[in-house]
Automatic annotation (TrEMBL):
Location, primary (coarse class): nucleus
Protein species of origin: Handroanthus impetiginosus
PROSITE patterns found in the cross-reference section: B3
PANTHER family membership: B3 DOMAIN-CONTAINING, B3 DOMAIN-CONTAINING PROTEIN REM23
Organism phylogeny: Eukaryota, Viridiplantae, Streptophyta, Embryophyta, Tracheophyta
Region span, Disordered: 110-135
Protein name: TF-B3 domain-containing protein
Lineage: superkingdom: Eukaryota
Keyword list, A-Z: DNA-binding, Nucleus, Transcription, Transcription regulation
Acidic residues: compositionally biased ranges: 125-135
Domain TF-B3: from-to ranges: 5-99
Any GO CC annotation of this UniProt entry: nucleus
Length: 254
């Protein structure tokens, strides 16, 4: 496999059209790669967008130039975007639809012109093993989102949680959940319920209206460990998937 530069991915959620935050874990590991201005693009040979990276309160963001890039690429809610650093000033961007198809591939399919067919033929002629390497690594990135520490939290089920299920403030801030009033929650059986989120002025947040009803049909087991994964669905809503992480609880429902 060729020596590829570092990369990270982002799922387009809230207010991504104006600026985009670079993951803290990436900044901590690869701070040296972050220039004040970078060039973004799919191929970096012709069409590139100059975007500034700014630091504020220890957080790093794509700012000036990002709105134009997001507009030109027609980024939408729930798009999965991979950022691959070529060097300190160039970042190759790959955009995927919620369906899993690459955005450029969707364009070729929906515009089946002779020009598109020639482009596909040219791409096939220039195909090499390095493309396989990129595809394999991208598949690993996509697979990692199934249980993603950045968009999920883990808890051990306790009796009091039936009536009160708080969400840690650090997770609320990271996911920018204060602007979300409700979510779709899916349990282990695949049942989906509407649940409201509450946000108090003192900073506390949690699952509110509809939560107790969700608990009643979801068969939580005392002392079992679960994970809630926050995933944008095809309808632009936020889906919360219930995942059983650890067996060995007391085997009885709370």
């Amino acid at each position: 496999m060729k020596n590829l530069g570092p990369s990270f991915y982002k799922i387009m959620l809230l207010e991504f059209t104006q600026k985009l935050r670079i993951p803290d874990v990436f900044v901590a590991e690869y701070r040296a790669y972050l220039s004040k201005t970078v060039n973004l693009g799919a191929d970096l040979s012709e069409n590139i967008w100059s975007v500034k990276i700014e630091e504020k309160d220890g957080e790093y963001w794509f700012t000036e130039g990002w709105p134009r890039f997001a507009q030109d690429y027609k980024l939408q809610f729930a798009n999965f975007v991979v950022f691959r650093f070529i060097d300190g000033s160039r970042i190759r961007v790959t955009v995927f639809e919620p369906s899993g198809l690459e955005k450029e591939a969707l364009f070729l399919v929906s515009h089946g012109t002779e020009e598109s067919e020639e482009s596909e033929k040219s791409d096939s002629d220039n195909y090499d093993d390095d493309d396989d390497d990129d595809d394999d690594e991208l598949a690993e990135l996509m697979d990692a989102t199934k249980i993603n520490k950045e968009t999920s939290f883990t808890f051990t089920w306790r009796k009091y949680m039936r009536n009160n299920m708080p969400i840690k403030g650090s997770f609320v801030k990271k996911m920018d959940l204060t602007k979300i009033k409700g979510v779709k929650m899916r349990n282990l059986k695949g049942d989906v319920h509407d649940v409201r989120l509450y946000h108090y002025t003192d900073g506390r947040s949690g699952f509110g209206g509809g939560w107790a009803a969700f608990v009643d049909v979801s068969e939580f087991v005392l002392d079992e460990t679960y994970k809630f994964e926050f995933i944008p669905n095809k309808n632009g809503e936020l889906l919360v998937q219930m995942i059983l992480m650890k067996m060995g609880g007391k085997g009885r429902r709370s």
